Amino acid sequence: MQTVQDIPALRAAIRGWRTQGQTVGFVPTMGNLHAGHQSLIKLARARTERVVASVFVNPTQFGPNEDFDRYPRTLVQDQAALAESECDLLFAPEVATIYPFGAAHSVSVRVPRITDELEGAHRPGHFDGMATVVCKLFNLVQPDVAVFGQKDFQQLKVVERMVRDLGLPLKVMAAPILRAEDGLALSSRNQYLSAEERARAPLIHDTLQKMRELLAQGHPWQAIEQTAAARLQRAGFVPDYVVIRRAEDLAAPADGESGGLIALVAARLGSTRLIDNLLFD
């Protein structure tokens, strides 16, 4: 696997593949990779002939009280994980490469409406920073396919809408959530959990499953949200949101609506913020 940090080297490698008529898949990451990230690489590998991954901890998607400085930088381990997953090229740029005029003076991409609630309401500016860097990376890599994990479901929907609205010539693919045996969604932030918190953390997935069961039994979605939030609070979580939404656009469902829905949870356990979701069949 080749590792490059500058744009000319990235484009030269991709140009060589394109002259051979090869398709290109892309997986953008912030590094500190785990088996969930590797599953994204493998999905891209199954769909395209060449795979590019990026490792870039993007400063513009972290709020002032978030964990940008604490976010682990593990490039050597990430290189090994990507090579094991048969990634062809790693793009690991410096901040100045992505933001040549400084992050505060960058062109900004904002995807309206769908970014205003849930994660957007609790992390102001997060999706503007995410959409901006993803748009920049799409322009640099120009992939045929880009793969995103379903765990960050709102992010996935924001990227899908941006691609469609801007007419970007690529397909966005969603990769299923990878979970530990006890149901906890794999996340780089799981390492912040104490042993006691780690033992409690799977209750989020269990609660999502119970929300699905209650909806199938005919309970109103508003009551299900309240019951689920109270259950998490009793277990020591501090929820930011516990909601049922339409999977297509994250709008609130109509009363009695049961098809095409998703439950989403964001909650703090100790100092660690966890997110998860579950699509309803």
TrEMBL record:
EC code: 6.3.2.1
Keyword set includes Nucleotide-binding: yes
GO biological process, one term: pantothenate biosynthetic process
SUPFAM superfamilies linked to this entry: Nucleotidylyl transferase (SSF52374)
UniProt binding sites for beta-alanine: 61
Binding residue positions for ATP: 30-37, 149-152, 178, 186-189
GO cellular component terms listed in the entry, alphabetical order: cytosol
UniProt-annotated location(s): Cytoplasm
Pathway assigned to this chain's UniProt record: Cofactor biosynthesis; (R)-pantothenate biosynthesis; (R)-pantothenate from (R)-pantoate and beta-alanine: step 1/1
Assembly with partners or alone: Homodimer.
Note: The reaction proceeds by a bi uni uni bi ping pong mechanism.
Record HAMAP family: PanC (MF_00158)
Protein name: Pantothenate synthetase
Natural source organism: Rhodanobacter spathiphylli B39
